[in-house]
Amino acid sequence: MKKNILTIVIMASTVTNLVLTALMMFSIVPAMNKTNKLADKVLTVIDLETEEEEEGTQWENLETYEIPFETKQTIILKDEGDKEAHYVVIDGITVSFNKEAEDYDKISESVKTANVYIVDYVKEAISEQSISTLSEQAIKDNALAKIQEFYGSKCVVRLSLSGYMFQ
Fold first, then answer.
1. Is residue 67 within 8 Å of residue 119, measured between CB atoms?
2. Which residues, other chains included, contact 142 with Cβ-Cβ below 8 Å and sequence gap of 6+?
3. pTM assigned to the model
4. Residue 131 CA: distances (Å) to CA of 64, 76, 81
5. Quick one: fold of 56-166?
6. Positive or negative CA dihedral for 13, 16, 20, 25?
7. Residuewise pLDDT in 10s, the chain (167 residues)
8. Helix count (H) and strand count (E) of the chain?
């Protein structure tokens, strides 16, 4: 008799679970799809695209220009008060240009003839970091923003730091 009652309880639980799952599938999933469609429409309206779509540059449209250093550059990081000197060492910088930008010729020529500005902005971005907040991506993003502001153009779309090491 106990086995029969236990079987009936298990069967009732299974049927209840099946009914609740079906109810959830028919009520929650369509609402979630409607919310996703609404969010897509809003993002399209305010033009919040993904980073790749925003830049609109494919790797075929990039030209790279290397700025090698004769010797490794050592840049001291911001002091945290731990009485140790922390620093970053880089061998060079690679700048990527968007060849489809309107001012590509002007900006690329300017960078190639006077790359000191690029080097200065990268060094400045590195020296603003401390050892606890150090992030290579943050350095590249900060320097890239400063370079784009300096030239007033989005022609420079990426920076790479070759030989990046820190201590």
1. yes
2. 125, 128
3. 0.62
4. 29, 10, 11
5. Tetrahydropterin Synthase; Chain A (3.30.479)
6. positive
7. 667 888 999 999 999 999 999 988 888 888 888 888 887 777 676 654 444 444 455 667 788 888 888 888 888 888 877 778 888 888 889 898 888 888 888 888 888 888 888 889 888 988 888 888 888 888 889 999 999 898 888 888 888 888 888 87
8. 5, 4
